[in-house]
């Protein structure tokens, strides 16, 4: 087996500029969060994939919402950005394939956010647990702006 590891002497190029906590009333108001087709809201405790078979290694409790419609929100960004990365924490239980159209300030990003849940099991049941999905928004939608809707 061969493993390659590249470590840069420079600090990382990603900076967290804002964070929306769906399920937290204050955060939702601050970000003008709206959702249609709400199917569930509440708290859930689950784990990320286990580390060295320790299934509780990534245990995390989070509040949130599930929906089959749409959501919209506003976030702050650094105007000197080279694009923005959205990250969404989802629970694999009952979520197989999800596709979303992403609009930035009313303009459609030309590719959908297509999430296919990996068919892995943590060993405690069928495909389950927390999973993070990222979506890259090109700088042509974000450069020079200090907020995005």
Largest sheet: 2 strands, antiparallel
Count of DSSP strands: 12
- Could you give the order of strands across the largest sheet? 1-4
Summarize model confidence as the mean pLDDT.
85
Unreliable parts:
none
Helical stretch tally: 2
What would the principal axes of the Cα set say about the shape? Answer: globular
Strand content: 35-45%
SSE order, one letter for each helix or strand = HEEEEEEEEEEEHE
What distance lies between the first and last C-alpha atoms, to the nearest angstrom? 46 Å
Structural class: mainly beta
* Oligomeric category: single chain
Count the domains: 1
Helix percent band: under 10%
Radius of gyration: 17 Å
Summarize the structure.
This protein is mostly beta strands and 149 residues long. The chain has helices at 25-30, 139-142; strands at 34-35, 38-47, 59-67, 71-72, 75-76, 84-91, 97-100, 103-104, 107-108, 113-116, 130-137, 147-148. The strands form six sheets. The protein has a two-stranded antiparallel sheet. Strands 2-3 form a two-stranded antiparallel sheet. The chain has a two-stranded antiparallel ribbon with strand order 5-12.
Break the fold down into its secondary structure elements and pairings.
Blueprint: H1 25-30, E1 34-35, E2 38-47, E3 59-67, E4 71-72, E5 75-76, E6 84-91, E7 97-100, E8 103-104, E9 107-108, E10 113-116, E11 130-137, H2 139-142, E12 147-148
Antiparallel strand pairs: 1-4, 2-3, 5-12, 6-11, 7-10, 8-9
């Amino acid at each position: 087996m061969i493993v390659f590891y590249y470590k840069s002497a420079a600090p990382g190029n990603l900076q967290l500029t804002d964070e929306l906590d769906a399920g937290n009333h204050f955060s939702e108001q601050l970000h003008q969060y709206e959702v249609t087709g709400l199917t569930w809201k509440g708290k859930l405790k689950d784990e990320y994939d286990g580390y060295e078979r320790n299934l509780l290694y990534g245990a995390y409790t989070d509040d949130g919402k599930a929906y089959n419609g749409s959501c919209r929100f506003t976030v702050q960004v650094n105007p000197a950005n080279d694009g923005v990365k959205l990250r969404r924490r989802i629970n694999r239980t009952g979520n197989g394939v999800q596709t979303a159209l992403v609009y930035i300030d009313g303009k459609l990003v030309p590719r959908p956010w297509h999430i296919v849940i990996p068919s892995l099991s943590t060993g405690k049941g069928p495909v389950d647990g927390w999973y993070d999905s990222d979506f890259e928004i090109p700088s042509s939608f974000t450069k020079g702006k200090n907020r995005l809707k």
